[in-house]
What does this fold into?
Amino acid sequence: MPYQYPLRIDNHQLEEMSERFFRNKLPRNWTCEKPAHDYGVDLRVDLFKGRAATGLELIVQLKASTEGSNGETETVTLKTSTYNHLWDKLQVVILVKYIEREDEAYWLLLSEIPEPNQENESFTVHIPKNNALSKIDWDQIFEYVRGVTDEKLAVRRKNQLRHNRN
It folds into this structure.
């Protein structure tokens, strides 16, 4: 009788393929790590300018499927609680969906996703297929992350100064 061994389920393989695809599309000087505990944050990306660290970070919510959606958008079901958790992060968040059959992923910044109805447990996000990860302009993403981070830090510092005066 042959020995039995654990099986690797398709979802685990698909998840790993989506992570590999995403990592391979990043600029070579950026770093990417998977947090030990996943509460909507699948990957954290540290942005570098040349060889210099910047303190800028991008959070990735990564989804994957074997087949893509028909039409001009790729759909993702997102839990409202996950959206709320990611929205409250100081870092910029990007939603990415990998499609195995196409060997492509599509992206959308969380800031471009309308706030869901809080009474619904989940909602559907439509990612334009024009936003192919293989064609992303990482310099544009870098500048966006820098701008958002600077704005959020300015508000935080302003509030801290106000608090310290009182």
Helices lie at 10-25, 80-87, 138-165. The CA atoms of residues 110 and 118 lie 16 Å apart. The chain has one domain: 10-165.
